[in-house]
């Protein structure tokens, strides 16, 4: 650790901050105006670097290289505008979470489109003409192109600031960020304003990707990696704040640079690898900032939206028809291994479907009735899975005891994380849960001696009497059924009604003596326990567990399941889990471009079923019932007359 190395790392952090800012600025603009949590924003970054690669190959010479970079950004901006007009404009009246589901589907479609156009191999672009060398800084060589990037960040920040503060378009954007309904009421064409903002945000992301061409190869993993970092920067800086995004990008990039400079340090006889903290330091910063200042460093508390989404009907206890249908379904599921004896894989798939159903039901418990959106629910699934595996491998406990204790491990994690999370709301709560999940993932990924690190843990098999997959399936069916029944039972208890009261009106609930935060905290623990049971069952069904069970992708899968089925019905998460898991398995086994097909199916389902599959079916039956009641009332009045 030398002083010169410290300074060079800080300067390198400035270059990384500029690249990160370009992506985060576009994401902040899009969310500030449209209120869309755009998961596809990282895909625009990825497309930008791939398009720049192709343009640089076709435009020869130094001039061609420098023309290709802004041209790639413009192409990505046009792509963003097309996506907004063709797809997103059709679902602005849908609940905001369904818009998130649509952008997740876009991630899948765009990823396979890039795979089809450019192939699976990494593509490394040429050096930047005129900036391909290096300069000497304190006796160390520093890339000239990185100095160029350091300048680009403030220049783009200044240009965007002038656009937002010195033009009529910027005035409308700032007004829409504070109160988009009022802007529409004043006669502004809200649709085209949204299109322009979305195109500008996509163009900034595309420019960020294009500028990375001389620094790193283009890969298919850039989308999700980038969107995670961009979310952190936007939330830390403050939603809708462009200067905040730049300040947050600087803060996070410089902290990472310092961690790299520190390397491995002996602290009281223990070797601490600060370089490994770069995997999680941004999420640590986000967690600290959100706990200290919930709306970010430069943000302000958001004005409540005047648009009221679809209201939920009061919970009703299931009728006889529902109970009969549930009993018949239970009998069919119990008999499934016997009916499909010729296809052992069907039993394996059914186990996956059941585990997914319990995981989705646990997430729905805090998203629907409690009104708390979680982007990090995989933390409790993973804690349950690793808890079961470690109890069996390290302590030598029987599997039966591990299945009982592992959910309690997940409940303990939910107890700690929930205490912080319930103090926030909306997207900030969602981002804090994501931060906690990523912190848990990083610890699991790097603790080689305890969790197996990136390799995970193997040899986690069920007891001898469950060696037959059919026996394990019946155990899974019994435990999943008990878990789902327990969650429903809690929702029909006084606690469940108090939870819904706190979701619908915090002030009214508080006025009648309900401690809303404590109720929500308890809901986190309940949901974490059920998710932990799902994770434990998953570990024993696969015989191993890896850090992927805690990764962002697992949390996103849970969100997709809940939203696909319908967040406003209790059966929705189960329907969504079965649909998504079955589609994922079926499509992946039958085509190389399964992501695009799965994404297209999800988009179609979003457009056809804006309430989710179960929610739309319920609405149809409710409309039929209401029409029948209206007709009977009319006939009764006519007969009386």
Short description:
The protein is mostly helical. The chain has two domains: 3-118 and 142-292, no CATH class; 343-621, ABC transporter involved in vitamin B12 uptake, BtuC.
Descriptive notes:
With 641 residues, this protein is mainly alpha-helical. It folds into two domains: 267 residues, no CATH class; 279 residues, Orthogonal Bundle (ABC transporter involved in vitamin B12 uptake, BtuC), CATH 1.10.3470. The protein is built from 24 helices and six strands. The strands form three sheets. Strands 1-2 form a two-stranded antiparallel sheet. The chain has a two-stranded antiparallel sheet with strand order 3-4. A two-stranded antiparallel ribbon has the order 5-6. Strand 1 and strand 2 form a beta hairpin. Helix 4 packs across helix 21, helix 12 crosses helix 22 and helix 13 packs across helix 20. The longest helix has 32 residues. The protein is globular. About 2% of the residues have low confidence.
Structural class: mainly alpha
**Quantity of strands, as a count:** 6
Tally of discrete structural domains: 2
Gap between N and C termini, in Å? 96 Å
CATH class group of the largest domain? Mainly Alpha
> What is the architecture of the largest domain at the second tier of CATH?
Orthogonal Bundle
Instruction: Give the low-confidence spans.
Output: 303-312
- Largest beta sheet: what is the strand line-up? 1-2
